[in-house]
Amino acid sequence: MSTRLCLGLFMALMDLSIISTALYTISKDFHNYGLTTWAALSYILADIGCAVFFTRLSDVFGRRQMVLTSFLFFAVFSLASGLSQSVEQLILFRALQGIGGTGLYSLCMVICPEISPPRFLPIVVSVLGFTVATAGVCGPVLGGVITGTTTWRWIFWINVPIGSTAIIILFFAWPSNKNITDVAETPSFKQMDFLGAILNATFSILFVFCLQEVGTRKFGWGSPSAISLFCAAGVAAFIFYLWQWYISHGAISKWILPQLPFRIVTHRPMLVAILTTILTGYVQFTAVFGIPLRSQIVDLKSPVASGIRLLPLVSATAFGSLFGGGASAKRNLTFYTMSIGTALMVVGTALLSYSLPADGSHTNAMYGYQMILGLGLGMSVSTATFMNSLEVEFIDHAVSQGTVAQSRSFGGSIGLAGSTIIMNNHLQSSLSGVVSPSTLTALFISPFTISDDSLETEVLFRESYIKAFSEDLRVAMYVAIAAFVISLCAWQKHPPTVKSRSELLAKAVEEHRNGLRDGEVNGLGDARALKLGTRVG
Q1: Residue 348 has what pLDDT?
Q2: With CB atoms 3.0 to 4.6 Å apart as the test, which of 123, 158, 321, 370 could cross-link to 312 if both were Cys?
Q3: Please, is 124 exposed, middle or buried when counting C-beta atoms within 10 Å of its C-beta (0-12, 13-18, 19+)?
Q4: What is the CATH number of domain 2-192+257-532?
Q5: Is 402 in contact with 508 (CB distance < 8 Å)?
C-alpha cells in the first residue's frame, strides 16, 4: 500500500514540473504563447489553494475516501488534459487535475507515517523526502523525453493507467487494522473550517496570480488592478489570521477544526520547518524550471537534451533526501541536517550564479554545481518532513503535513513569478528600442516567441537571458541564505527523541482507534484526544 501511495505522491509532484520542457511545443500547437504558461500555473495554484483543505477533509471523512477521490480526480483530468482541443480547455483541466494532485501530495505525506510501524518512521520519512525531492526534478527530464519522442499529450496520459491501477488496488486492498487514524468515522460538515479554507486559498491564489501578472507585464506594479489584488490578498491574510486565532483559543474550537491551529505555528521548530520549506520551494522551482529553459534558449538544446541535463540534480537530490532522513534514525539530528542542507543550497546557487561562463557557453562544472545544490535540496526537504513527524501533536499531524505541502508549492510559485520578473526586467533594458513593442510584449509572456524573429534579435535576447539566469540564481542564493539563517533557529537543547516520539505515536493511534470503536471519542475537541497528542520533549 505504501508503494502505491508513494507512486501517487511521485505522480502528483512530477506533474508540477513535467510541463516545463513541453511549454514551447504546446504553445506552437495551440498558436497561443500568452496563455500556455497558465497550463503550468493553474496546476500550481490549485495545489496551493487545496493542500490543507484536503487534509482536513480526510480528518472528517477518512483517509481512504479522500485518497481514492484524489486519485480519481487526478486520473480523469489527466486524461482530459491530454484530450484538450484548446489552450483554455487545457488550463481548466490542469486546474482540476491539480486539485487531485494536491490531495495525493498532502494525504500521502499524512498516511504513510500512520500506516507504518513506529520503529520504521525514519525510513518512511526518508523515502517520502526522497520522493518529494526527486519528483520535481524528474518532471522536466521525463517531459523532455516524451515531448521529443512523441506527442506532448502523453505527459498527461501516462498518469491514466498508473492512477487507475492504484485506485483498483487501494479500493480492494485498503487495510482495516493498520495504524491509519480516521479521526471521525461519521462525516460532519459542522467540523470543517470553510471560512478558513476560503480565506487561505484566496490569499495564496490572489498573491501568486498578481505577482505572475506583474511579472509578465500584464499589470504594472502601480496599476489599479495590481494594487487591488495585492490589497485583497492582504485583507484575506489578515482576516484568516484573526479567524484562526479565534477558533484556536475560544470554546468554538470544540466544534470547528481550525484550518491552521495556532499551536503549530507558535511551536518554534515547526515554524522553522514551514518557513524553510517555503524558501526551499523557491530555490528548487527556480532551478528546476530555469536550468532546462537556459539549455533550450541559450544552448539551443532539444527538450530531451535539456531534461537530461538535470540528471545530476536528480541523483544528488535523491541521495540528499535519503541521507537527511536516515541521519536521524537513532538520534534527532534534524537541526544539523537542515542547517547543512540549507548551507549547501547557498553554495550550489552561488556557484551556478557566479562561476558559469559569461558568454553562456556550456561547461561540465555546471553538473557539479547542480549536485551540490541537489544534495542541499534533498536534505532540506526530507528534514522538514521528519521534523513535522517529530514535533507536532498527534491530532495535528494531518493538517501540519498539509501546511508543509502548501508551503513548498507557495514558495515555488513565488520563485517562478520572481524568475519571470527578473527575466523581463533584463529584456526591457536590453531590447527596448531594438524590437517592436508588440515583439517585446510577446517576449514578456513567453521567451520562445524569439524563434520567430531575426537572427540579430535572437543574439541580443540570448545575451540578455544569460544575464537574467545569473541574476535569478543570485536571488535564489539570497533566499537560500535566509533559509540557512532561519534553520539555525531550530536548535533545541533537548529535542524529542525518535524513540519516544515513535512510542507515543503507536500508543496514540492504538488508543484513539479503540476509543472510536468504543464510542469514547466523538470529535477533535475531545480532551482525551488532545491528551494523546501531547508532544514528548
Answers
A1: 95
A2: 370
A3: buried
A4: 1.20.1250.20
A5: no
Calculate the CA 64 to chain-centre distance: 22
Q: What is the DSSP string of 187-230?
A: --GGG--HHHHHHHHHHHHHHHHHHHHHHTTSS-TTSHHHHHHH
Q: What string of DSSP letters covers 297-364?
A: HTS---HHHHHHTTHHHHHHHHHHHHHHHHTTSSS--HHHHHHHHHHHHHHHHHHHHHSS-TT----T
H or E, element range at 427: helix 397-431
Classify residue 500 as exposed, middle or buried by CB count within 10 Å of its CB (0-12, 13-18, 19+): middle
Q: CB–CB of 398/269 below 8 Å?
A: no
Q: What is the pLDDT of residues 295-329, one digit of tens each?
A: 877 777 777 787 778 888 888 988 898 888 778 77
Q: What is the DSSP letter of 495?
A: P
Domain ranges of the chain: 2-192+257-532, 193-256
Indicate whether this model's pTM tops 0.90. Answer: no
| Rounded-to-integer distance, Cα 90 and Cα 229, Å | 25
- Look up residue 425 and give its three cell numbers: 526586467
pLDDT band at 380 (very low <50, low <70, confident <90, very high): very high
Strand partners, 435: 432
**Cell matching residue 342:** 540549507
**Rounded (5°) CA angle 468-473-474:** 95
Residues 6+ apart with CB under 8 A from 271: 264, 265
